[in-house]
Amino acid sequence: MKLLATLLVASAMLLGVSMASISSSYSYYRLPTALRPKKYDLRVLTHLENPEELRFEGNVKILIEVLENTKNITLHAKNLTIDEALITLKDTSSADKKNCISSTEVNSQHDFYVMQTCNELLAGEVYELSMPFSADLNRQLEGYYRSSYLDPVANVTRWLSITQFEPASARLAFPCFDEPNFKAPFVVTLGYHKKYTGLSNMPVKEIKNNDQIADYIWCEFLESVPMSTYLIAYSVNDFAHKPSTLPNSTLFRTWARPNAIDQCDYASGFGPKVLQYYEDLFGIKFPLPKIDQIAIPDFSAGAMENWGLVTYREIALLYSAAHSSLVDKQRVASIIAHELAHQWFGNLVTMKWWTDLWLNEGFATYVASLGVENINPEWHALEQESLGNLLTIFRRDALESSHPISRPIEMVSEISESFDQISYQKGSTVLRMMHMFLGDESFRAGLQKYLLKYSYGNAEQDNLWESLTEAAHKYRALPKSYDIKSIMDSWTLQTGYPIINVTRNYEQGTAKLTQERYLLNTQIARAARGGCWWVPLSYATQGEQDFNNTAPKAWMECDKNGGVLPKTITDLPGNDQWVIFNTQLSTLYKVNYDERNWKLLIETLTNGEFERIHVINRAQLIDDALYLAWTGEQDYEIAMRLVEYLQREREYLPWKSAFENLKRIKNIIRQTPNYEFFKRYMQKLIAPIYLHLNGLNDTFSGIEQQEQVLLKTMVGNWACQYQVEDCIEVAQSYYRAWRAEPKPDEKNPVPINLRPTVYCTSIRQGSDSDWQFLWTRYKNSNVAAEKRTILTSLGCSREVWLLQRYLELTFDPKEGIRRQDSMWAFQAIAYNEIGFHLAREYFMNNVDFIYKFYHPITKDMSRLLPPFSEQTFLESDFEDFKNFVTANRGSLKGLEQAIQQTLETMLTNVQWKQRNYRQLSRSIETMI
Ligand code: BES
Ligand code: ZN
């Protein structure tokens, strides 16, 4: 399949090139390769003074090198007004060799702007193309767009402009060769009223007065290094900034609206530290003279790594000690670390085409966790994020509708869809796997080699495999007969991950291992699953608890045709000792043991000696047991008995793994008559840890281990959902104390880390006026993290009318919820068991409106779907949704992938209900 796709692409490319030189009706999705931009000179004048007329006009001069003779210039432009009479074309080698544009046409499918030239452009020549353009600053959060905030002192709205170009929106801001492999240096010059500040990728070179418009200036920035168009950024704003002070570091500034500047301290301290760490890790200095990070009030993604001018949502950059929780703070750290990792992986070395987007996003995700781990080792971010990614991918990639990490891309909508868990979390997981099987030294050496070799250029995954293989052989980290490509192709070109069946022979001390793809949909015959993965095998035994050794003791290989080769492991202990494969979950696979081995494991877990098993492997055992029970390969009774050991567990990761799984069961079973048993089981499970952590009492200042803060936050939340001990009372008393404050916007007695639980519980149990009180706090809050917590909690009400009102105001821009935040409100309502039915009704009745509301960022709309997939388990509801999807294709365009996953998840829930509902109910009934 892959080969076929590659061939098709290759031949189409050939076709594209030759077509470019003969015809203008060019319909291939990539730009022709006859021309190459050598340099851009971009001037943009921005008008922000009149809110009725927020617009820009500009001119771009592109130096174009001709690689093959051609009679047209084809580049990208979208939604721009271009006066074609003003386009000029000059041969730079001789001033008197005139050329011109004879006609133009637009291909709106691929956003091409095609200019026929008066004379043929000849290979070897260099032309200067000059094009004027103008447009409104749009409201769509991409291209060059407007944002605003309320200045509370003057009580007026202030406007600013900002760009978001990735993946394919530079073409909305200026005509350009908008593909990642067309790198060129940029000189940006911004024109604006002198009361504003202009920012771009590079530092200011000089500022001049604008001779034509009074009080306007021209701000020219230094020429950049060669870069891809999607990384260009500029902004005109009246923000305040905070310089960083780390010695010997790049000039580093953090920007925000003036009223939020005091929330920039944390980011301005953390940013330069992590930048320095990367300089050491990669052995390459940050190549630009400065870096700015800026918090934008209206922003669609979480953050964007523009080279030298990194943009963020406010919640992703700003931190307030008085309002942000530890989770919020760690999120800020992790996002900054991610975007700064891109300055190397993505900006310095860029993927050739979006097919290899994971080289950007998977790397940034993995390297960010190394960065945070290095700067705040006490957080154990590496373990936490690694497990979090694994848990996500175990679920997502067990769907038949998943896709390989590396995938063919032909349309802009497909590029956007690729920013998904597969590129980020699976990409990061397979990099971690390599790091663990190669060891630190050769992994780093391989990365350095790769970065150096492709600096200011583009690469594809095979280039990375090559650098890593060289390093691995040099450091003897891999047998000479192995190469990284054979191993890694099985992970990046193939969808899914394996389950390894371990059958031990206790007399002989051996185990036989086989593998097949793990799928949640049990209607698909096992034999049809196919697939083979190269698996580094590590294991620990009860006698030799060698969990720190993640180096492979053996490999599971595949034959030349990708067929499975079973593997026998020898030297295992006898029948009184367990074996655990995959130490620290270094590799993405599930394990099923024979019954005896499971029994031995459960014995160790439940007899109080569970700490002999590495904490990540405890999380693994929980996850595996519950998955196998879900798909019918394990008895639920055994799985739930295993889970019961948690009554003694005091660490965060195993609990996290358990809750992630139990949440799925909860979402179904709480809509059924047998919920009572599940509820009692949960109460029994949670009570000991709740009490151990001192309930909801404010013990945070005394907690030394940071993970215990996260544990307490998470357990508190579940305890109140399940009415454990005094949880609800304590939560409500905190809330009452807050309501009694004379100035609740200034003083909030609720412990920060418990606020999500306290608010949600109080709204769930509370009155209209409790809801109104919180909504007022939302409107008055100046802190994005606090606002998000409130939005999520407002969805916890059990009053149908309040939920209905909340739904409607969520999609009413006048009400003050920004579009970028609307999905949090919607999700909160839709995950509430009462709100679910309202939200479903609302979504199905208003899908056209919702589609337009989010247009063109369909990715945001796709975030409304998980509550439906996770709570639908009746065949009839599943069929309804299927019909709804078919009838509304037009309003779900660009969400195809998300819809496929939604439907498949619903189907697996239907299967679960049919197969497991009774069995689970019966087995927990005996345990409570
Ligand atoms: N390059 C992305 C931003 C992006 C996402 C652009 C989607 C276009 C489409 C950026 O580096 C990123 O990954 N941002 C994440 C946050 C990150 C910490 C995981 C995001 O926006 O969710
Ligand atoms: Zn990223």
Describe the structure.
It is globular, with a radius of gyration of 29 Å. Among the domains are: 237 residues, tricorn interacting facor f3 domain (Immunoglobulin-like), CATH 2.60.40; 97 residues, Neutral Protease Domain 2 (Neutral Protease, domain 2); 141 residues, Neutral Protease Domain 2 (Neutral Protease, domain 2), CATH 1.10.390; 128 residues, Immunoglobulin-like (Sandwich). The protein is an alpha+beta fold. 42% of the residues lie in helices and 19% in strands. The strands form eight sheets. It has an eight-stranded mixed beta sheet with strand order 5-4-8-2-1-11-14-13, with no helix packed on it. A five-stranded mixed beta sheet has the order 16-17-18-20-19. A four-stranded antiparallel beta sheet has the order 9-10-15-12, with no helix packed on it. The structure holds ligand BES and zinc ion. The site of ligand BES has 14 residues, from strand 19, helix 4 and helix 5.
Chart the SSEs and their pairings.
Layout: H1 2-22, E1 35-47, E2 55-66, E3 70-76, E4 88-91, E5 98-99, E6 101-107, E7 112-121, E8 126-136, E9 143-151, E10 156-164, E11 186-193, E12 197-200, E13 204-209, E14 216-221, E15 234-237, E16 240-243, E17 251-256, H2 265-282, E18 290-296, E19 303-304, E20 309-313, H3 314-317, H4 326-342, E21 349-351, H5 357-375, H6 381-396, H7 412-417, H8 421-438, H9 440-454, E22 457-459, H10 461-474, H11 484-492, E23 498-505, E24 510-517, E25 535-537, E26 539-541, E27 554-556, E28 567-569, E29 579-581, E30 590-593, H12 595-606, H13 615-630, H14 636-644, H15 652-669, H16 675-692, H17 706-721, H18 727-740, H19 755-765, H20 768-780, H21 784-794, H22 800-810, H23 822-831, H24 835-845, H25 847-854, H26 858-862, H27 866-871, H28 875-887, H29 896-925
Parallel strand pairs: 1-11, 17-18, 18-20, 21-22, 23-30
Antiparallel strand pairs: 1-2, 2-8, 3-7, 4-5, 4-8, 6-7, 9-10, 10-15, 11-14, 12-15, 13-14, 16-17, 19-20, 23-24, 24-28, 25-27, 26-29
Helix pairs in contact: 2-4, 2-5, 4-5, 5-6, 5-8, 6-8, 8-9, 9-10, 13-14, 13-15, 16-17, 17-19, 18-19, 19-21, 20-21, 21-23, 22-23, 22-24, 23-24, 28-29
Bound molecules: ligand BES and zinc ion.
